[in-house]
Recover the amino acids of this structure.
């Protein structure tokens, strides 16, 4: 296992060229948030926006529009029941994040199917939360594009068939190879499995053990994936910064709330973007 | 009467073990918030979340979903009219808080009955606000599980039959013994009655004399009860910190608003968690 | 004309007695906020709450419930179309503020009539904004209780019949005597007319020349009137602090937004409450 | 090309006279925000309000009322489907901003037509976002009043017919002269075309490359146009400060969010208003 290093993150979060436009930083579509779990997609979209995504659109239940805009006017919204409009929008996206607060009912299952059928390279796909539970319950072939799944250990158990006690790096890596997508297995020290390698994240604190932390990570991964060319490096950098921010906040807090992490992403990205990689 | 000490709080709020997950910190269900008193359940849920509850779900009138999520995306929501879904969720909860903003109409009375019938050990139950008024008006046997009631003096009068002028520690203790549940009687110096003992809270300030302060305490009690093994110590620690934060804020404020207390809970819990209990 | 002095404010905002409860600090009902002007009642209720009102209830169009609670969970809400419930609540109130964002349609006119008929001593009444325009258009006898009107100069013209250019202190005082209520005539330096005296407010800045500033003052007047025995002193102190806060904010801001004033009320009230009146 | 200078901004943002009222600082109507792009009009209205506009009204889809008020109680709202009421309000406005989040459907097209027909001198008009796309698709004569268009390069391509690669200052100026309105062409260094001159904005950072930045500028232009006599100087000052704030924020942030700029407008306007123009 190889640790994610400060150097890797510093090399990934490059300074933005002066002549650049929001279109250069990723059109990110986040899909989720049913009538019970609207907060999840709000937190994911917040993280994507504060990660510097150029344009963020949220496909969700209309019930969540008012609260989303009250917290995040920077995002656009659409009713995720409008399949035709969703497909039209989806075609123009660089990154799709599906799962936070999506739920696991029939509609959610159908929506996931629609999205998996429509997404195509070079789009990048982040599958999180309820979407992973759905995938485990209704296995289906995944489309041929860069995909990352971000399960916590119980979701990984459902997806990989590995009981939590059997989730060793070697077993996880084998399961990841079978799936054929990058896997971020969230735990105290999160491990990341790519076709080539196993990474682990040095950071993490039990102050992060609260609802919404995973939704925030999924949004960050989506935001980073829209900006940085190397998909693996983008994912690893998002994982690293997510816990680096939490670790710093936990120095003075017993529990760290997800939105507090998002608020600090722009500052941390700045600090890493100007650091000397060889110093790091 | 025994004062709640810094040492007791410090011993209660233990440092979190590194290997731990949101499931370790309590699934807390808060029930309340009708069409007139939605703010009460928002404040209670905010306090529970900032107290470190692992997962917070709010059962309330759908009218309150947007404002709740606008303030607190970390919480999940459900329509408290959906009894079947409520019972399904309730079965998986560690702590139930019922009462903030619940109101006292027929629906509220029935909902309270449903919850009291369904809750069972080792779940913990916090009964606050309107639910206490309902209990006083429609006495019913309480289920056999750890329960705490958090009345202010007028609610305690209704519940115990003791006029405010007759609410001496001895009389209160007798009434608590008859009820068989822990009683937090809120006043300038709040007193707490358990089967074994009478405690009093050294803190408290008239700057707290504003609507929502009790809802915030109920949420904190719920949040602490989901994390700390000793139920009595959890309750006492929540009472203590609630007023300790208010006292500090009141050093520079004529009135302290409930949400300002919640915002500081993570910091105060941290400070108490790392303090040396013998120094305290 | 007599200036409102720091000493008067310091003597009015007394330290709260330790043994006191939210019921001691005023039940304040704010009525206003139609489908177009909902922000006005939100700002007024915010000011009343941050002024230390014990319990704040807002009677408004239901459209405004979500945004009100998103900003101010501390307030309770009711649909101002429910006349019976409104009258029931109104009977238990200490202070009624009517007008911010009320509008001037037939419903507003009828609601104002209902409230003026129902209010009775020792309740205190603050009439502001649209309610003043309605009163001017449909003159009616005012009930016999402590009343303050808070017009800006154009509203005062409508109410008193005095053109702005004719609004001299003497003419204003004569008009106030005819009305028989305290009048706060808002201008660069606001003047306040009571049966006995003419006061002027030394503070005020053109940075306050923005929508919502008057709604905020009305809320502060309501909040202060619920706490401080001397009605005139409560009004004068609210006027004074409202502009004192704005003046301080304007030292570094070209425009001061109403909600920024409300956020600082608790701090300013504290500072005045602990100041030595003879030093002031 | 002439740079916008600190001196120009300092001379434009004059200190407010003590005797002045909200009516002196502009009645600004912002029109936009459909069911998908509500955040855009929220951000524009926020910028206008924080720029010191005396009275801000937002004509938008009612779906956006709650989120708008949750963020900005200072603004008034109206349903933009109510044409008669819109026209009545519009007649009393000093500045009209149309476009942010308006969308490009038939309703939007008709609404734009209604507004262009109704607006008349000395009103000032800011045309932004979707409204520019509509104008390009359905060319129509513009009314004879002070107008500014604020396209980004792709919108300017649609409006002027100039491909982005052909958007040289000379070509842009020729296109602007044909249109007959002031044109703010947004880019890394924004250029501004008036009948007399070409200006360029020295500031700007790629940290601004995120959704909503243009909506915020449109709102600032509207706010400034309501306060400062010289229309061109008002526009140039808004463009200058918008990026000056962003540049300062970007010193510590990888991405700057639009609402963060708005929050700082009052401070920056203050600093420029008190600076010595000859020192600047």
């Amino acid at each position: 296992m190889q640790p994610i290093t400060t150097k890797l993150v510093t090399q990934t979060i490059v300074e933005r060229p002066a002549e650049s436009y929001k279109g250069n930083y990723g059109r990110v579509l986040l899909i989720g948030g049913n009538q019970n779990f609207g907060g999840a997609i709000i937190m994911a979209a917040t993280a994507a926006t504060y990660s510097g995504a150029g344009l963020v659109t949220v496909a969700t239940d209309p019930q969540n529009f008012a609260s989303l805009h009250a917290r995040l006017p920077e995002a656009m919204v659409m009713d995720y029941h409008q399949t035709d409009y969703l497909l039209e929008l989806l075609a123009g996206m660089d990154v799709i994040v599906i799962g936070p607060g999506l739920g696991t009912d029939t509609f959610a299952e159908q929506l996931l199917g629609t999205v998996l059928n429509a997404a195509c390279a070079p789009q990048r796909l982040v599958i999180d939360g309820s979407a992973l539970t759905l995938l485990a319950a209704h296995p289906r072939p995944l489309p041929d594009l860069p995909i990352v799944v971000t399960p916590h250990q119980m979701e990984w158990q459902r997806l990989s068939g590995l009981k939590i006690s059997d989730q060793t790096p070697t077993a996880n890596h084998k399961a990841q190879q079978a799936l054929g997508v990058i896997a971020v297995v969230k735990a105290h020290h999160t491990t990341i499995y790519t076709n080539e390698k196993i990474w682990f994240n040095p950071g993490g604190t039990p102050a992060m053990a609260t609802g919404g932390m995973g939704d925030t990570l999924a949004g960050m991964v989506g935001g980073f994936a829209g900006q940085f060319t190397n998909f693996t490096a983008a994912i690893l950098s998002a994982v690293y910064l997510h816990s680096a921010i939490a670790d710093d906040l936990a120095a003075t807090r017993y529990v760290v709330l997800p939105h507090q992490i998002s608020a600090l992403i722009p500052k941390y990205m700045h600090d890493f973007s100007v650091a000397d990689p060889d110093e790091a």
